[in-house]
Design brief:
elongated; six-stranded antiparallel β-sheet; 3 domains; six-stranded antiparallel beta barrel; conserved putative lor/sdh protein from methanococcus maripaludis s2 fold; Helix Hairpins; OB fold (Dihydrolipoamide Acetyltransferase, E2P); disordered N terminus; alpha+beta
């Protein structure tokens, strides 16, 4: 009975062992290259380490740091405008004036009121000496004289600012009102651009990633379309501490040094910012990058057996024309695969070809994988 049972079990046990051996060989084939597989010819390139900073590209419009909006301090009817758009003006030049009829009347009224209060003060003072008027009455007249004096000073001050004068030498960019219009208090009449100090700037917004590596004093190279082939030096002079609520960028200001060239508001320019902050990065040839998705990518390196490869995920810091700056993923790696990397998988067999060989034999390329 036992012999029959053993005979009955012998076949399924043998089948199970054979199946297990087949699965084991399948797993080995999946993780190790097959014997006799034609190698893919590849080339290696060294990686370099160092402290790098990437140049940032932005654009904007040139403006004057002396730009101002000129208006009347008080309201009134505009009597005369002495300039037009585009006019060059000098410091203190009269630009516009209000009709002074009402304003002069207010000054005259305040002056006469002061004279009346002074007469009242003199009369009450005499009565006080004769003990007819009280001390309180005398003090009240003193107060009324002081109030009338200040009222006259205000009226004369407003009379003075019923005119607009150029705060410095510059250009009238826009004339926003005309003669005969009623100007309210503080309403813009001119858009003025001061040019005496030659203080030209570009204002624009940068991303949060760029904002954290920039600081005041960082250099900039400015290219202006009106001056093809020329570049101008610049420096970051202002940086906002908060984001613009409209577009979410961080406003900064770059001061441009015109070096004797003529500039004007509204000229378009492109800027190359050069952050002084540096970070330790690994630089590899761009041909080594086989896949990329945003800030992540993959490169192949050679294993110690010099025949198999490893697929390495890397963190991309920035790209240049022919290089990739990697901030992580290639620690202790000295070389990466460039030529032939696009044909590799993690199970590929490779053969390294010397970079000095110019006319290499025909490289084996695997058939397209589907």
């Amino acid at each position: 009975m036992n012999a029959k049972l053993l005979a009955a079990l012998r076949f399924p046990i043998a089948a199970i062992l054979a199946f297990a051996l087949v699965k084991c060989s399948d797993n080995k084939a999946a993780t190790h290259p097959r014997a006799g597989e034609d190698p893919i010819l590849v080339k290696l390139q060294p990686v370099t380490m160092g402290n790098y900073s990437r140049n940032l590209q932005y654009s904007g419009l040139i403006a004057s740091n002396e730009e101002a909006r000129l208006s009347f301090k008080i309201g009134g009817v505009i009597s005369r405008i002495y300039v037009k758009e585009g006019d060059h003006v000098s410091a203190g030049q009269l630009l516009a004036t209000l009709d002074l009829t009402e304003i002069d009347a207010q000054v005259q009224q305040a002056s006469q009121n002061l004279e009346k209060n002074r007469r009242d003060e003199a009369r009450i003072s005499n009565l006080y000496r004769d003990t007819v008027a009280s001390l309180e009455q005398l003090q009240n007249t003193h107060t009324q004289v002081n109030v009338a004096t200040e009222a006259l000073r205000i009226a004369k001050f407003n009379q003075q600012y019923a005119q607009i004068h150029a705060p410095a030498g510059g250009v009238i960019l826009q004339k926003l009102m005309n003669e005969g219009e009623v100007a309210s208090v503080g309403k813009d009449v001119f858009l003025f651009n001061g040019t005496e100090k030659n203080a030209w700037v570009v204002r624009f917004g940068v991303s949060d990633r760029d904002w954290v590596i920039l600081k005041k004093g960082d250099k900039a190279t400015v290219s202006i379309e009106a001056y093809p082939g020329q570049t101008f030096a610049g420096t970051i002079t202002k940086m906002a501490e908060g984001a613009d609520p409209v577009n979410g960028t961080y406003p900064i200001e770059v001061t441009i040094f015109p070096a004797g060239h003529k500039l004007a508001t509204g000229l378009f320019c492109s800027l190359q910012l050069q952050p002084s902050s540096r970070q330790s990065l690994t630089i590899i040839p761009i041909e080594a990058m086989v896949e990329g998705d945003g800030k992540m990518g993959y490169v192949y390196t050679l294993n110690a057996d010099q025949r198999t490869v490893k697929k390495n995920p890397v963190q991309i810091a920035f790209l240049t024309k022919d290089k990739v700056a990697v901030s992580g993923g290639l620690d202790s790696v000295g070389q990466v695969i460039t030529d032939g990397a696009g044909y590799l998988t993690e199970t590929s067999v490779v053969k390294v070809v010397s970079n000095e060989i110019q006319d290499a034999p025909e490289v084996h390329r695997p058939k397209d994988r589907h």
